[in-house]
Amino acid sequence: MRCVRAARIQRQIQNLHVASGLCFSLLFLGFVGGCSEQKNASPPGSANQSGETLTPENTMDSAEAFDRELSALNLTEPDPGEAESSTMADAAASSPDLTSLSDAGLTHVTQLSARIISGSAPTEDAFEVLAAAGVKTIVSVDGAPTQVDAANAQGLRYVHIPFGYGGIPESARLSLVRVVRETTGLIYVHCHHGRHRGPAAAAIACLAEGSVDTAGALAILENAGTSRDYAGLWRDVETFVPPSENTELPELTESAEVPSLVTWMAEIDRRFDNLSQMQAAGWNTPADLPDLEPQQVALLLQEGFYESARALPADADPQLKQMMEDTDFLCVNLFRALKDGKTDEAAMAFEQVKASCTQCHSEFRH
């Protein structure tokens, strides 16, 4: 315990003025030598290197003498509570006000490192609050167009790296690396709701800057509530290895081309084919789709309808939007039935989804 105490004293001595520090250091070195002798001493009653017989009595006398000398120097050990409070206060002073971000309508806001914050998509009013919190760069991985003008008006840079729920493409991972390496200051990463794609992208960014290891990156997803059924997101975070410094990285853009309604319809068709194969296999994973599970595909199908509704133009027929939202709900029922292993209910829900699509095509596909 005295050697531990000596280590604490040494840290205090390093902060003293040079002149006084010389005196203190000499005293300290003498004490550390005593600690070393005590550690390597023979059993009580034997002789030390100077020939003096070590006994419990004279060992305690030496320690008490050091305590008196220490008291005379007016050195005191820091109170652990005060040190902890000081550290917490310093951290709080250097951290953005996350409460203000939540008050601005942002959800699932979490600071993941000294530079990286994850949360939901900002409304126009939230950009001012983000800027006031010290954010310099906003990264959107959502498929919706970015609000570049609103961000720029507050001195914020927007970077758009859209990707879906099935995984994080290599180009997106490398773009996130470039964001970390090229920018300075706080980075706010968002998707739409801030629970799945956004935390996955933020985890990649944290890996790129070296603030977390693989286990820490996966913990980011766990804490965010990222669904395990988005297996591609988990896979791409777990297997990500930051590239070397000389790796060519993609150019960053403030407003990337986003998937169109036609693109989302193609994604929906592909997921329909996957589910049809799985239904034929008794709602199991077919041999030619080893990386997919039925409930995961059902969830990706649901996201396809959800994003399709978001991709509709402002002047789209309200009935078309409503039908897509209704089919989205039917896909949720399909997902839950498959996740619970209720294959009969899953078959019924899948038929309802197909019937809804058939009706929509008959009315709106010309």
Describe the structure.
The chain is mainly α. It has 3 domains: 2-72, no CATH class; 96-238, Protein tyrosine phosphatase superfamily (Protein-Tyrosine Phosphatase, Chain A, Alpha-Beta Complex), CATH 3.90.190; 261-364, Four Helix Bundle (Hemerythrin (Met), subunit A), CATH 1.20.120. Helix content is 58%, strand content 6%. The protein has helices at 2-13, 18-40, 56-72, 80-94, 98-103, 126-132, 148-152, 170-182, 197-209, 214-224, 231-238, 261-280, 294-311, 318-339, 343-364; strands spanning 110-111, 116-119, 135-140, 157-160, 186-190. Strands 1-2-5-3-4 form a 5-stranded mixed sheet, with helices on both faces. Strand 3, helix 7 (148-152) and strand 4 (157-160) form a beta-alpha-beta unit. The radius of gyration is 31 Å and the shape is globular. It starts with a helix and ends with a helix.
Residue share in β-strands:
5-15%
Spatial sequence of strands, sheet with the most strands: 1-2-5-3-4
Describe the main β-sheet briefly.
5 strands, mixed
Could you tell me the mean pLDDT?
A: 80
- Total helix count? 15
Which bin fits the share of residues in helices?
55-70%
What's the order of the H and E elements? HHHHHEEHEHEHEHHHHHHH
Radius of gyration: 31 Å
Derived from helix and strand composition plus strand pairing, the structural class reads mainly alpha
Number of domains: 3
How many DSSP-defined strands? 5
CATH class of the largest domain, anyone? Alpha Beta
CATH architectural group of the largest domain: Alpha-Beta Complex
Q: Runs with pLDDT <50, length 5+?
A: 1-60, 66-93
CATH topology of the largest domain: Protein-Tyrosine Phosphatase, Chain A
Could you state the CATH homologous superfamily of the largest domain?
Protein tyrosine phosphatase superfamily
Distance between the termini: 83 Å
Q: What overall form do the CA principal axes indicate?
A: globular
